[in-house]
Amino acid sequence: MKRLSGGLVLVGQLMLVPLATAADSWSEAFVNGAANGQVAAYGTTTKEKGGEREGFISGSVALAYRTVPFYRLSLGFGAWATTRMAQENDGDYRAEIGSDAIIHQAYLHYAGEGWGEITAGRHEIDLEWLNDYILGGSAQITPLNNLELTLGWAGRQAVVDLDEVGAGFSRLNDNKGLYFIDLQYAPLEWLTVNPYYYHAPDLFRAPGLRLTAAYEIMENLKASTTLQFVKSATDSASGEENGDLFWLEQTFARGDFGFGGGYLKANSKGVGLVDSFGDQSPFEEGNRIYEADAKTWYLELAYEGKALSLTALYGQTHYYDGTGKPKEKELNLVAGYGLYENLDLELIYADVRNNAESDYYTFSQALVYSF
């Protein structure tokens, strides 16, 4: 499932606070540090065909602080608090908001001189198959202008966003963690080559490759082609089958408008647990795209203006459920509007229909003020 886009952007910005020049002492580093955050109201409702309406309304505050570097070292802290304002039924709020308060950032950051950076502790990460916040260590190494290497280890993980907050930082892979390597290389101005490798001991090993070509077909008509394949070899101790995933996406952009589509195909046995710690679903819900023998296509139309953004996406997934091959259809409608400076409104509607399960729709709204 996609993370709420407004929450994702704003939370990510909490780590990117502007900093002054290096400090001469730790006391100066703390005094001259920078803070920012967000205040938000969020509401969601879900209605299954023939069932009761579920949902809640919440308010949240997120704050983050980062010191000025001292000997290239800086400290970062972040806290997120959520409160229930209303709910349709008992337990609706707690089903999604596992903790009313969480320290989601607490890290030590080292900025190398021209070669990259290292972060250790609780910090945000956004890789192909590892998202949200982790407790661990990661390094971004840039030996060349067109080459960036990200590698590290995650021992725990937490989801922290407007629509979902975990109960805490949960252990990954029974405390064995997840190792990851992600290489971004641009041999040509229009081409990005992205090989990666994930290893969860006693669970799976997953090498993958993502190729992205961005080019201009004619004046004012830009295009992007993305091709990705990942293959997972599961450990016998996991009790799961090996799997793989193929993903092709083609998009076009002309002025403020964009359109495109994509196709995903999972192995007849599934994707081999590669989606266990994060994914990059094109859908808001995307319940079945990684199921065994899943074949998915989707089309998207988007508009991005100065203050208004609109997106419509429709797709279908055929998958194997153990006895047959049902079909799931999903329609997404997303609207974002900048009401005032630093005040944004986002509306998300998803309609899911499955010929073997109950149909349902979900509608969420977020009003976010960032500072």
Can you describe this structure?
Helix content is 5%, strand content 59%. The chain is mostly beta strands. The protein has an 18-stranded antiparallel beta barrel. Strand 9 (178-188) and strand 10 (191-200) form a beta hairpin. The longest helix is centred in the N-terminal third of the chain and has 9 residues, at 5-13. The protein is globular. The chain starts with a helix and ends with a strand.
Biggest beta sheet summary: 18 strands, antiparallel, barrel
Query: What would you call the shape?
Result: globular
| Multimer state | single chain
Series of H and E elements: HHEEEHEEEEEEEEEEEEEEEE
Cα-to-Cα separation, first versus last residue: 28 Å
Determine the fraction of residues in helical runs and give it as a percent range. under 10%
* Structural class determined from secondary elements: mainly beta
Beta-strand residue percentage:
over 45%
Low-confidence parts, pLDDT < 50 over ≥5 residues? 5-19
- Our Rg estimate from Cα atoms comes to 21 Å
Mean pLDDT: 94
Count of distinct strands: 19
Number of alpha- plus pi-helical segments: 3
Keywords:
single chain; 371 residues; 3 helices
Short note summarizing the structure:
The chain has 371 residues and is mainly β.
Describe the secondary-structure layout.
Blueprint (H helix, E strand, L loop, with lengths): L4 H9 L12 H6 L2 E15 L4 E14 L6 E15 L4 H5 L4 E11 L4 E9 L8 E12 L2 E12 L11 E2 L6 E11 L2 E10 L3 E15 L2 E14 L8 E12 L2 E10 L28 E10 L3 E11 L8 E14 L2 E12 L5 E11 L1
